[in-house]
Prior knowledge:
Blueprint: H1 2-5, H2 15-19, H3 26-52, E1 60-70, E2 80-91, E3 107-114, E4 128-130, E5 141-143, E6 146-151, E7 158-167, E8 171-181, H4 204-209, H5 243-257, H6 259-263, E9 265-275, E10 278-287, E11 290-302, E12 305-314
Amino acid sequence: MRDLISPTALPRVSRRTVLAGRPMDSNGLAELGFLTLLRISTLGALTLALLVAPPASARTFTGTITVNSVSAASSTYASVTATAQVTITQVCEPTYGNPGYEYCGYFPFVRTVPASEACSPTGNMGSGWVGPYYVPQDGPGTKAPTVTWMEFPSIASGPKRACLYVSTDSDILVAETTYTVPAAPPYTPSTPVVDFDCSDFVYQESAQVYLLPGDPHRLDADNDGVACEELPSSAPAVATLSLTEARSAARRHLRNRYASYRRGLGRRVVCSRSSLYAARCSVRWRYRGRRYTGTVTVRVVDADTLNIRSNVRRSSRSR
């Protein structure tokens, strides 16, 4: 900058002529005046540019969020309302052409997560609130809306975290706070519109369907979990299976299915009980030089029906 107005940069003029007050020729005087004005103008322009240069981007957001209340649930599956006071302050220049001009539009939103988790604008979205869009001209300054959102205690109760964001080019965390969602009240069965008695049912199994929590129909007099015990069961009676009956049934099955058993020698059937209603029999016999071994399973289906299955293997002819 000093070089612009340095005396060495000016036209060389006779010091003697100047000191003596002698007039310079018109060309020299005009050149001296022009160069002097040029350097002074340049210095002034550079100084002004440094003083009035637009500042760097200064757009900022600050804010607060306070959950004032969370209502109590009226029933087990009812929702509750969380009410919060929010403040958002933006420093921004919305006027195009002014120094530091920026796009000042945004919208705020609240996202909730469990209190044990950190705020994050991504991931599973819990309960929350989305505010209005503030256009660029309305964006600067402080906004203080009262916001509400729904909580569902039957799904998530206990400590939670409310995170206040503003969405512009990206999602910016402005403030956060913690609060508590009260637990849902225990389930209380309502009085049924139709009241049933044991006399309204033919079988015990039908009455058991209407034995609800709290026994609103009063079907379980002794509170043992069985409704109308005096009613008969709709399930058919199933007889037990004796070993003698199982052995006879196995022999009949083998005679009807295997001609080699009917004509064979050394026939043997030994049965053992696998339950009150089923038996397993080991069988063996010989016929024409071959040995037959296997098992027969006998199971009671109902009082008049047996289910019989056999698995018999034949060995190679003995020499």
